[in-house]
Amino acid sequence: MSENNKEKEVIISVKNVSKSFQGRKIIDNVSLDIYSSETFVIMGCSGSGKSTLLRLMTGVIQPDEGSVIIKGKDITEISDKALDEVRRSFGMLFQYSALLDSLTVEENVSLPLKEHTKLAEDIIRIIVKMKLSLVGLRGYEAYYPSQISGGMRKRVGLARAIAMDPAIVFYDEPTSGLDPVVGGVIDKLIKDLSAKLLITSVVVTHDMQSVFNIADRVAMIHKGKVIATGETDQIKNTTNPYVQQFINGKPNGPIDLFKEDIGIKEALDL
Amino acid sequence: MNTISRIGAFIISVYQYVLGVLALFMDILYWIFIGPFKGKTARRENIFYQMVFVGLRSALIVFFVTFFTGIVLAMQSAYQLERMGATLYVASLVAVSLCRELGPVLTALVIAGRVGSAIAAELGTMKVSEQIEALELMAINPVRFLAVPRFFALFIMQPCLTVLGNISGIIGGLIVGVGSLGINKDLYIQTTFKYLELKDIYTGVVKSFVFAMIIALIGCYEGLNTKGGAEGVGKATTNSVVISFILIILADCVLTTIFYFSEM
């Protein structure tokens, strides 16, 4: 794959991005290149800044320094209107699905189509049916988000994310809070979408099983810095102690949660 | 020093709040007046849905509140007017005070409590559960999609509800006048309209437009700026009611002054 990557087109480029909240540096000089139609996984502990990085990539928040270039456009500098234009070419699956409660499953999935296209009602209905059957939820059109399970909501969220046939889909913790089987189903969906529709997937997760299932390439973030990037196998066999500790889920190692919060350690010592 | 800096911080926060609400107002006006020419505006079905929620579903509570206010008003004024043998004038007193003052204000307070709080709670919940962010990422402007239909619905329905409130209050007064004070029904109605002038009605209706804007803006602003989970939603809801109430009474005072001095 690595030879191929060099020829592949860079679709998202994060360049020297930094972001602080209330004086705390959450993202520290991060640079990443994501290639077209690959599945790129960003992993890291909770609080490492990976969700913030995702929000920077989607233009929800602006970086203090650096730039984010999506399909050749620097989204940190363009107008709101141009940003909306870029956003139409990507979809996002939220950690808690973020479906609109007041709309049914069908209305949720059809919302971007109704807002951004001039397609006739029946065509939209057909597209929605197609997207829902892609995620295995045909027949649930009339349900409200509160009437279906968390795993189903995630799948509806995925159907909505791909409603506009986006070039890029961002996933924020797609498998967290799901049972292993549903998590596996979501993983398979992500893989299928990349393979069949050539969608570029950017996945933020700390679910290691999921990482090795779906990733073409992986980046690991720790304390707002990218500490390792590479092919999935390279990451698996790396000697980097941080990555090894993370992959194997060891409580002791270079990643020391207690060092970051002296209060807890002191409390435990008592 | 501490007190002074606290006062300063309070003034700054009020200033920022006012700026925020005005920015939202400008945004809403943009989507109502300029948006349609650029092919983007609020969806009609959303507006009608909100109009049903704001208007139709609030009709009963507005009716009850103003109806009983009319009854109470008639009885209280009869108590005074009886001494002068002028119970007939209960009719005009009830009608004028309802149309000029009580109808618009009571209706606005009821709607602020029922609809303004619902707007703040709904948008606040959407904000904390990332639904607003999801809209933004789908390139759907939350102000256009959520705030404009609510603003529009309130702006149309508030005056309607106010007129309904005026009528039901007058009916309440009529029941007391005819039933308990023994005034002839026709005479009561005649007296009502004899002293009720057009300006009494339209000053009330003008007020209701202003109240509608206050309720919609504060509800939407509080909702869209909610922070911090369930507690934040609770705070936003409470704030929307408290701030709307204060602003409604304040605006009522200002408008009444303007009407009074312009001899309207």
In short:
With 270 residues, chain A is an alpha/beta fold. Chain A has helices at 2-7, 50-57, 80-87, 105-116, 121-134, 150-161, 180-197, 208-214, 232-236, 241-248, 257-260, 262-269; strands spanning 10-21, 24-35, 39-43, 65-70, 73-74, 90-93, 168-172, 200-205, 217-222, 225-231.
Tell me the helix content of chain B.
Answer: over 70%
Largest interface: A-B, 22 and 16 residues
Oligomer: heterodimer
Run of helices and strands of chain A? HEEEHEEHEHHHEHEHEEHHHH
- Contiguous uncertain segments of 5+ residues of chain A: none
What does this structure look like?
The complex is a heterodimer of chains A (270) and B (264). Chain A is an alpha/beta fold and 270 residues long. Chain A has a domain at 2-89 and 200-269: Rossmann fold (3-Layer(aba) Sandwich), CATH 3.40.50.300. Chain A is built from twelve helices and ten strands. Chain A is globular. Chain A starts with a helix and ends with a helix. Chain B is mainly alpha-helical. In chain B, 86% of the residues lie in helices and 0% in strands. Chain B is built from eight helices and no strands. Chain B has helices at 2-34, 44-81, 90-128, 131-137, 142-179, 185-195, 198-224, 229-261. The radius of gyration of chain B is 21 Å and the shape is elongated. At the A-B interface, helix 3 and helix 4 of A face helix 3 and helix 4 of B.
